[in-house]
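Practice problem: predict the structure.
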Amino acid sequence: MSAHRSATGLASELRQVGQAVERSFAALHPHLFFSGTDGHWSPAHHLDHLTRSNLPLTQAMRLPRLAVSVLGGRAEAGRSSRTAEEIRELYLAALNAGGRATGRYLPTLAGGQDAPAQERILAAFQASATELGEAVAGWSETDLDSLLLPHPLLGKLTVREMLYFTVYHHSHHLEGVRRRLQSEPT
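Answer:
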């Protein structure tokens, strides 16, 4: 079992994975950025979904700690946060059981499918990723492990677990888009 990552380490990981997502998606020609196939989301849809996923977490992390405890509750005494690997496995199991994004997490694209629209979607993601990383600052290690937040597929997670999820979630979508684009005929 690996050691838990610190708030500083998590903020750094969020920044790194956000930059990797942004670089990869910015490098796509608008035609590829907006193209989905066989019912699969386009890269633009994936990026919009990640932005929509970042926003409520950032809002929650900016709340006073008392408000977070009202929103999600507190972890039971003696319960420690699960590892990043355990959260990844829990998420993959939820996906394998049919879990999917719903409601406010579903991407909606409006405003064209050209380079300016791509830049707008990229800028929205970049802003959401930056704001999330900044929101992690000031969180104590104790609060990361004692306060809970609701996750739509995984139930209540400690804030640390939610951040582990978010780092993996960004990587999961980035790798999914990369695999799909590599498998398409050129």
